[in-house]
Amino acid sequence: MEPIVALVAVLAAGAVGVAVGFVARGALSNQTLKAAQDKAARIVAEARTQQKDMILEAKDEKLKLQREAEEEARAKRNELQGLERRLLTRDEQLDQRADLLEEKSRKIADREREVEVQREELGRLNQERVAALEKVSGMSADDAKGILLEAIREEAEHDAVKLARSIERRAREEAQDKAREIIVTAMQRVAADHTAEHTVSVIHLPSDEMKGRIIGREGRNIRALEQATGIDLIIDDTPETVILSGFDPVRREVARLAITKLIADGRIHPGRIEEVVNKARAEVDLVIRQAGEQAAYDAGVPGLPPELVKLLGRLKYRTSYGQNVLVHSVETSHLAAVMAAELGLDINAAKIGGLLHDIGKAVDHEVEGPHAAIGASIAQKHNMPFKVVNGIAAHHQEVEFACPEAPVVLVADAISASRPGARGETMETYVKRLEDLQAIAESFGGVERSFAVQAGREVRILVRPEEIDDLSATRLARDIVKKIEDSLTYPGQIKVTVIRETRAVEYAK
Q1: What are residue 458's phi and psi, to 5 degrees?
Q2: Contact criterion met (CB below 8 Å) for 312 and 329
Q3: C-alpha–C-alpha distance, residues 202 and 204, integer Å
Q4: Residue 243 phi, psi dihedral angles, 5° rounding
Q5: Using an 8 Å Cβ cutoff, are 196 and 324 in contact?
Q6: pLDDT at 57
Q7: Pair 465, 501: CB distance under 8 Å
Q8: How far is CA 163 from the centre of its chain?
């Protein structure tokens, strides 16, 4: 019985514990639920407070935006009203201006009608005046107009000549000192040797017996020499002399050197001739190259193409009017460089143009055309600068100057060529040039006599004073200069002086 009672007691205690647990859990759930409800209420209250704040802020922002929009609209309305007022004012001004223009147009039209009436009246009066003048003078209007035009033309020519003389005198006064200073400076700074190196074309023999050895049996030696060198050998009655004849100065030098070696060696036969000529040609080629390199070095022009250096060296054996062309080219290069420096131009282009200006003379016996054009073509072929090419092509004024360095090369060439002692002329050429100068001067009307003086560098012309006045004398000098430039070839420049003299002679008896 006791175990059952104990079991019942345990069960009762468990039931009580369970009941107590349910009661405690319910109380805890109620507390949790109440806390959650309180929190939810707080959250709802806070949300309502925030909502009210946001609504208030939104209303404030809306009011602010409305005020800004109203202010902007008010400003726009004010601006539009101002524009409208200005447009109205401008319309009024335009209307006033249109009225003024219309009034002026009416006045102009009235004035034009008045002018037309006056013009017609003047035309009628002019016709009456012309008719009266024709009646009084016994001359038609066309004849009188011709006389007036002729008088005006003569007066205009007279004024033109006076103006030309004034301009020329003023330009000469301003430019002569500067030009003289530049040219004298260039000439003083360049002191080249003007000893002419004439091409040797005569060989002196040790004896007349050597002529026979040069000719050889049945002329085989002389034929071998002429064939190997391309030069004609002239052996005549002149004692102990052999003359070399040929257009190519380099070949002539090869022949001279080969014959000199053969004479010194004494062995003269076709086989030996060919060997010596080849050696002489090699020596001359070496001399040509060295001469070209030395000329380029002396002129201060490094880096020239080898072919141009070789052509430049060939000028060592070329002369012009007795002046060695290579020496002349180096001096022209120096002169051109000095003048280009004084004038602020391209010194290097002027220097190269002066050195190469006569390069065409190295091959002018092989190529058709003037040496200036040939030289320009050679320079262009070797990619020389345009200023250099134009300086070479224009140094005899056969083409137009395309750069300021070209006339510098021309002037330098003229200075080097026309300096006293630089060139020599044969007596026949010299006399003929003097005669041509006098003939050109005397071919003009009004010339009484002419005299070529200063070795042909000046021609003085006496004119008849009753035919040539002072202004016509200036025009005559220009015409003579132009004809001399077109008709003659001469070194340097020629001065033309026209002299007009009026003499009044009376005799006391």
Answers
A1: -150, 140
A2: yes
A3: 7
A4: -105, 135
A5: yes
A6: 87
A7: yes
A8: 31
Residue bearing the bigger pLDDT, 352 or 506: 352
State phi, psi for 254 to the nearest 5 degrees: -60, -45
Classified as helix, coil or strand, 241 is: strand
Q: What strands, in cross-sheet order, belong to the sheet with 241-245?
A: 202-204, 241-245, 232-234
Each residue of 134-170: pLDDT tens digit?
777 667 767 777 777 887 887 787 777 777 777 777 7
Q: How far apart are CA 107 and CA 330, in angstroms?
A: 80
DSSP character for 344? T
pLDDT surpassing 60 at residue 504: yes
Q: How far apart are CA 299 and CA 309, in angstroms?
A: 12
CA pair distance 425, 323, nearest whole angstrom? 10
SS3 state at 152: helix
Terminal-residue alpha carbon distance, the chain: 215
pLDDT digits (tens, 9 = 90+) for 345-399: 999 999 999 999 999 888 877 788 888 899 999 999 999 999 999 999 998 888 8
Tally helices (H) and strands (E) across the chain: 14, 8
**Amino acid in position 412:** A
Strand partners, 496: 459
- In the chain, the amino acid numbered 206 is P
Q: What string of DSSP letters covers 411-479?
A: HHHHHHHHSTTS----HHHHHHHHHHHHHHHHTSTTEEEEEEEGGGTEEEEEE-TTT--HHHHHHHHHH
Output the six-digit token pair for 50: 């925030």
What integer is the mean pLDDT of 181-193? 57
Question: Which pTM was predicted?
Answer: 0.49
Going from the C-alpha of 459 to that of each of 341, 377, 499, the distances in angstroms are 34, 37, 11
Pairing mode, strands 447-453 and 323-324? unpaired
Assess contact for 468 and 444: CB atoms under 8 A.
Answer: no
Separation between Cα atoms, residue 168 and residue 162, nearest integer Å: 10
In this prediction, residue 492 carries a pLDDT of 65
Query: Strand order of the sheet with strand 447-453?
Result: 447-453, 458-463, 495-500
Neighbours of 298 (CB within 10 A): 16
CB 478 within 8 A of CB 440: no
Give CA 278 to chain center in angstroms: 47
The 3 state secondary structure assigned to 274-315 is HHHHHHHHHHHHHHHHHHHHHHHHHHCCCCCCHHHHHHHHHH
H or E segment and range at residue 500: strand 495-500
Question: Could you give the 3-state DSSP secondary structure of residue 242?
Answer: strand
The predicted structure's pLDDT at residue 227: 84
Question: Which DSSP symbol is given to 493?
Answer: -
